[in-house]
Amino acid sequence: MISKEFKMVVAQNCLDYDAKYAITMFSMGTLSESCNNCKNFINGECSKGLFDEIIQIISRN
User: Fold this and answer.
1) Is residue 61 assigned to a domain?
2) Domain-located, residue 29
3) What pTM was estimated for this model as a whole?
4) Res. 29: pLDDT tops 90
5) Domain total of the chain
């Protein structure tokens, strides 16, 4: 299972992040920028297939 913090880092580094709710971008609570709050993150997976790619980029840095 991937931690909430890790999903937040991935979302912050994703150019295709698209918030499900407009307030997500302004919140520090449960609706903060995270894969879980992205329109493209469906059933625990990125529908655009970017999750693994972003993980690799983050790992290199």
Assistant:
1) no
2) yes
3) 0.78
4) no
5) 1
Provide the residue range defining the domain that includes 13. Answer: 4-55
Give how far Cα 53 sits from Cα of 10, 24, 35, 36, 49, Å.
10, 23, 14, 17, 8
Residue among 22, 27, 43 nearest 35 (CA) = 43
Q: Mean pLDDT in the chain? A: 87
pLDDT grade for 37, boundaries at 50, 70 and 90: very high
Is residue 18 in a domain?
Answer: yes
Tell me if 32 is assigned to some domain.
yes
Average pLDDT over residues 26-49: 85
Separation of first and last alpha carbons in the chain? 22
